[in-house]
Amino acid sequence: MLVTVCIAGAIAFIAVYREIRRALCQAFGRKLMQRVAQRKADIYEKVGVVPKIARTVGFFHPYCNAGGGGERVLWTAVKSVQTDFPNVISLIYTGDAVSSEEALGRVKTTFEIELDASKVIFVPLKLRFLVSPSVWPRFTLLGQSLGSMVLGLEAICRFAPDIFIDTMGYAFTFVVVKEFLNIPVGAYVHYPTISSDMLKSLKKVSLVGKVKGAYWKWFAKIYSQAGRHANFVMTNSSWTQNHIASLWGKDINLSVVFPPCNTSELEKVDIFHPREPNLLYLAQYRPEKNHEDLLRSFALYVQQHPESPAKLLLVGSVRNETDIKLVESLKGLAQDLKVFEKIEFIVDAPWPKVVEYLGTCSVGVNYMWNEHFGIGVVEYMAAGLIPVVNNSGGPKFDIVIPWIGKPTGFHASTVAEYAEAYHKALTLSPQEQQEMRVNARSACARFGEHVFMRDFGDVFAKLLREVYAKD
């Protein structure tokens, strides 16, 4: 009898505690909304939107000035909102210490995206260091996730939005936003924080391996619970969708929205003119892009075919001192591999220069394992390069696939396979080259910027309807 009473008491305490916690959080959330109400009204009046239907959407993107594929998604999403929902103001939650003029200027030069600056408000985040992996040398996944919750709380405290959309993969922010504001939450997922591939790859023979395996399984469980707080979830590829569905559940509102690729401009590139026999790798200078093995595969190709005039062009952006050091280490590796004279290292090239490289090189390379999508690969194909991509992730399942029954490129996994693929791509007959270039470009119609804006706009309209339904 006593045990039963104790159990019942414990359950009652937990239930009451949850209700008290929820009531306190919602009260604090109402205060946040009240505090920002006048600020919103002033903005609406200044911009000239219709106050009755005007709303704010907060894009959570702490590294909005990085200049990569994720940032193209962010800014094209903002463009979609400005185009189809003119009474919505976009808030950008970011830790980048840049002015709005500087940030939007870089958006224009890097992505050729021009935005109405009056409808974009940058909300500075002082606690971004909490999501940096360097702050969490141990239990990095958990540390960054907890840090993102604090950062998410800072974001809504600085400016509480009407809709919250995470575009960087910080699923744990959903819990905070829902708990305090209870507003519609959207997510654009580039890559799951943890995946079934990670769980399968872990060797659990040793005690450390077993402990790590248990930790990853537990983290996957709480990651799933956090993700389910989102009202609508967009993924950038079928590979990502399958992993998110397996983790967050197949009953969530989940759809594939391919990331925007600037194919319209690249399709103007003449694919029939002669090209230089060069390889191009468009990728940010980050460890996961696997530049080291790329250099080794190119060195092997040069060793096997010393008569080849091919050069390798590395084109990418850097975010910080760590990325700059990576570029220097790659130069050292190229020296060691005796291919430094055949490689060009290009940092932070403006978009017109990137287009120039895309119009003159013959082969486009992707070397990242399980790349969530691969915008660079689409850009290769639209510009007429023959892609050599990793045999995994988005490049394998969504992009470099047969088009009307004909090949659009090559897949590879190992250093040796890549070297062989370079040789095959560079030694195709002129007729085979042209046929593959035409097939590849035709396959890119699925990934245009207008397609992304249409599909993102459809999801955003559902989020907006939920806001209006509550009012």
Automatic annotation (TrEMBL):
Domain of life from the UniProt record: Eukaryota
Domain annotation Glycosyl transferase family: ranges: 274-441
Catalytic activity: an alpha-D-Man-(1->3)-[alpha-D-Man-(1->6)]-beta-D-Man-(1->4)-beta-D-GlcNAc-(1->4)-alpha-D-GlcNAc-diphospho-di-trans,poly-cis-dolichol + 2 GDP-alpha-D-mannose = an alpha-D-Man-(1->2)-alpha-D-Man-(1->2)-alpha-D-Man-(1->3)-[alpha-D-Man-(1->6)]-beta-D-Man-(1->4)-beta-D-GlcNAc-(1->4)-alpha-D-GlcNAc-diphospho-di-trans,poly-cis-dolichol + 2 GDP + 2 H(+)
GO function term, MF aspect, one: GDP-Man:Man(3)GlcNAc(2)-PP-Dol alpha-1,2-mannosyltransferase activity
SUPFAM superfamilies xref list: UDP-Glycosyltransferase/glycogen phosphorylase
Leader sequence segment: none
Predominant subcellular localization, coarse grouping: endoplasmic reticulum
Pfam families, A to Z: ALG11_N (PF15924), Glycos_transf_1 (PF00534)
GO cellular component terms given for this protein: endoplasmic reticulum membrane
Subcellular location: Endoplasmic reticulum membrane
Record has DNA-binding as a keyword: no
Family statement drawn from the similarity comment of this UniProt entry: Belongs to the glycosyltransferase group 1 family. Glycosyltransferase 4 subfamily.
Protein name, per record: GDP-Man:Man(3)GlcNAc(2)-PP-Dol alpha-1,2-mannosyltransferase
Species: Schizosaccharomyces octosporus (strain yFS286)
